[in-house]
Amino acid sequence: MTPDGAPPQSIPALLALNADRFRDSPAFREKEYGIWQSWTWAEAADEVEAMALGLLALGAQNGDHVAIIGRNRPQLYLSMIAAQSVGAVPVPLYADAVGDEVAYVLDHCGARFIIAGDQEQVDKVLEVQDRLTGLERIIYLDGRGLRKYEHGHLTSFDGLKQSGRDARDRLRGELATRRAALDYDDTCVMLYTSGTTGRPKGVVLSNRNIIETSKNSAEFDHLRPDDAILAYLPMAWVGDFIFSVGQAMWTGFCVNCPESPDTMMTDLREIGPSYYFAPPRVFEQQLTSIMIRMEDASLLKQKIFHHFMAHAKKVGPRLLDGHQVGLWDRLKYRLGEILVYGPLKNTLGFSKVRVGYTAGEAIGPEMFDFYRALGINLKQLYGQTEASVFITQQKDSEVRADTVGTATPGVELKIADSGEVFYRGPGTFVEYYKNAESTASTKDAEGWVATGDAGFIEEGTGHLRIIDRAKDVGKLADGSLFAPKYVENKLKFFPDILEAVVFGNGRDEACAFINIDLTAVGNWAERNNIAYASYQELSQHRRVLEIIAGHVSEVNASLAADEMLSGCQIARFLVLHKELDADDGELTRTRKVRRGLISEKYEDLVGALYDGSREVTTETEVTYEDGRKGSIKATLVVVAGDVVPRGMKVAAE
Amino acid sequence: MADSPVMELRNITLRFGGVTAISDISFDIREGEIRAIIGPNGAGKSSMLNVISGFYHPQAGEVWFRGERRPSIKPWQVARQGVARTFQNIALFEGMSVLDNVMTGRLTHMKAGLLAQAFWRGKAEREEIENRQKAEEVIDFLEIQHIRKTPVGRLPYGLKKRVELARALAAEPKILLLDEPMAGMNVEEKEDMSRYILDVNDEFGTTVVLIEHDMGVVMDLSDRVAVMDYGRLIGDGTPAEVRGNQDVIDAYLGVAHD
Fold first, then answer.
1. What percent of chain A has pLDDT over 90?
2. CA dihedral A468, A473, A477, A479 (to 10 degrees)
């Protein structure tokens, strides 16, 4: 890649290379004041230098940890590279983390500096500052509301850069030395895993991990310097680091930051990224909103939409995979592109998507096909923080809804006897920070890492199929297989169901908690003149329960068809009176269900599912966004699901 | 000068026919403070605000602005002097977008002639860009970017209130008059609005005069509080002083609590 052939050994070195290669093309863009402002590669390198010098002026040492907290903004990405430039380790945090979580991480990594996005983040840090002995300085980006704060420990972003520029002559030599000393095996970044269980762990990723992974995955998908992405996922998430820093620096494409989290959809449409990642949830929300809006459209438009969508479902995915399609079908698809698919993709902001990925959760096959039918090259990947994201991904011509693809180049896979998936490769993490015990139990001497997921490699194709979390896979009382996540995903494929939690390990039958999706169900209620005053009331409405019961029956029917999993049919369920929320600890920050905590917290409700109650009254503590607590009371109805008796299928055969 | 009065109201009396809305009230507004006016319904608070904004002309008394007596002038002239306001019952252009509504707040800053504006040439173009920049800064400040292009009529109440504040702010006022900025809001919206009012005061040094019914909000936000009852001023001072004033307690607050 470099003129002299040696690959750059660090992100700052890649940035320097790009500043040279791509000089005046945009490296970052952010919408502010209604206009897309951009940083060219040269400007980015210049800004990083000023910040790095500023950090040196503050006394940053090799190996220091610099925490970064805030929403996706170019300056924050650049500040991570600035930290790397002085030999420090950037530690991005989740912007919506609460004070305690922030305190834990800052304390655990012993951060001396924290770069905070705005007043909200500064307040969070100040609140827990007393507990942190190591923290010396808070650097803030957006100074709004901070004017009257006591500035003893506070420095503005501009102040940091200014002090860096002022000290340029004095510290330039030092910066060059530190930058040159960066080694391929030095730490590139430390990311705290959201942790489905226990305290988050600091995953140490080296330059080798990040750069090799970025290189392999970028080449796999033929990413180009003229690609563009929208950086809107949490900066603390490994995926964002790989896409917005690793691959962006390796390939030299442009990273675009939305104006605010609320304007994401508008910004997506304006930027029209060519490389796009979203968790299934985002695709689901978009599909739901399309369908809701379609229902409001005129009859003619509805007819055209449904007619062409049916055609797209028939031939779209096959065209995308490069299969032979008849002339008439191709012509009709072209017409559909003009009338329906094109405008629809434009509205969604997907007109230019060349490579789209989804991961994190299983995606519903219908939803997956919907996007692929439109001609959007949506694929799945399987990964985790410890692997620097990529373990497996799908090749352009081998995209399927039910697998996560084949091993990423350079990655080896093996399946243990227990069914657990193991991998090793260039992206395999160095260690958990200050946690040798966990490191040893996750990564063995040969470098194989346990994913914690149970799955199998499909014979013939080599595709990996994930069934469930290995620790969640259990047995019902009669010894048959219990895979809660598998069932939950089936339930969640219904737009009306936002979240589901299935219980049953060691019990006679499987039962479920269900969260309705307020957008979809609320819209249905409006359409059917059903009045409701609150989420709680809607969730317990008789007709809502009937609809959900219908969905449960469908899931049960499909489970009954699977010999291995027919025991997992939902015998009874209840619709929860509140949305499961990360602020209450019920979901992780990446919105995965925390099964153990939920079954403890709602012990009374689980009890009611199994003791034959018809309804149950409960009181639940909730945490508001500002950290205050309140409680809600509700009476929930226990509904029985239609269970297809086991053996019936056998009888039919 | 932090403590100098930017506006003084001297012995103001305002009558509508036989009804005396305000009788012989004097108080001042200091540069950079948050000044609250409170009182029961019909006490004359909004009338007072209308006197300040030049909408009503008192039968007796004087308004002193920046050390000079202000003659009876039209509200738009008052606006030119740097006084902007929001209304108790939102007065926005419902069919126009948020951005356009905020831009109307820049009207007092537009100087290009009708013809120049129609052809959008030279000065008019420069002005438009400058005004849009200011409007966008306010939109950013109040975090309403996501509804920039949404017609105001489609917005929920709490956001409309925020848009109205945005329009007032776009005028870059020296004095901002807020008539019940938090009426009808839920706790979260009130907290947001309080935050914005404090930030405006803090960031731009804008003097804020507000009428509000929510005592918690008033006592937390204000530097000084004027209390009115039946058109008379019955108390004036810091929140703590007002809370301890017996007349005020009798008339309005009930019992002081810790």
1. 61
2. 90
